[in-house]
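User: Sequence in, structure out. Go.
Assistant: Echoing your sequence, followed by the structure tokens.
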Amino acid sequence: MRKLSTWLTVGSLIVACLIGIMTINVFQDKKKIEKDYQELKSQNDELINETKHVESLNNQISDLKLKLANANGYSDPNSDSSGELSFLQEDWDKIVIESGGEEIEIDSHEIMTQFKNSLHGSVVETNHPYPGGSGTSITSFTFHIYSKGKIYSFHSLRDNFFKDKNEEIFYKSGRDYKQIAKAFVKKPENYPETTMLSEYFHSGMMVGEKIYSYPMLSPFRINSIVSNFLMMEKEEVSSSNLQEDYIEKFTFYYYGKKLYMEIYEDHFHLYNEEGSFEQWYKTDAELIESFFSNLNAG
């Protein structure tokens, strides 16, 4: 009995020691988690501040562009001479784009808002920018803005100029308003040959499915996302039998075609709507996280 009691006592001490060790490990893990959380929170706060700084710089750049335009003889978009650009102040019902004998009707509120944002605050009225020529570009199109019974019609020109189709009034945009045409009209017959990855890069619009489920017409935004992918260290693989769902799926719109990019924990899947193109890439999960961090910052 005494031996049994002794063994029970020893066993109890061992269990107590194990519990103590486990408690210490749990405490240490908790401290590590708290430390990691604080570091991530600090990085997130820095990222938010940097994003706000970038937005502030972009606003300053837009203001400087407008001042430069005024200095070059363009009229103030807020002055009476430009009619306060009334087509930008009204609610739009739809946009119709004409190009190459086809018409594309767009009535998505989100897309119209993005297109209006590409013009609002960056457009100034100007004199004829091409006194010696027409100023027609390779991707030439006419866009009609329908607003409560009114129709505003404009024809695109080179260098982000466009003109009123019915009157000799010319405008200069500080942003690339032609993205919407690059997204939906057919590619011009005389357009240079491109690779599939180049088409991703030069797409007119991009829309996410889950996290970023809104249209993006900004060429800077689209170029940045594709550039981050292209520069990422990765390995092309023949295929993948992933069972997991993708984290995000982007649809790129390039001259009436749809290109897709599915992003998994450590894979990228690229393919087109026609089924004539498909590529899988394997990369590190940390690089995927960095990819999304850059996307949020951009």
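User: And one key feature?
Assistant: Residues 2-71 form the longest helix (70 residues).
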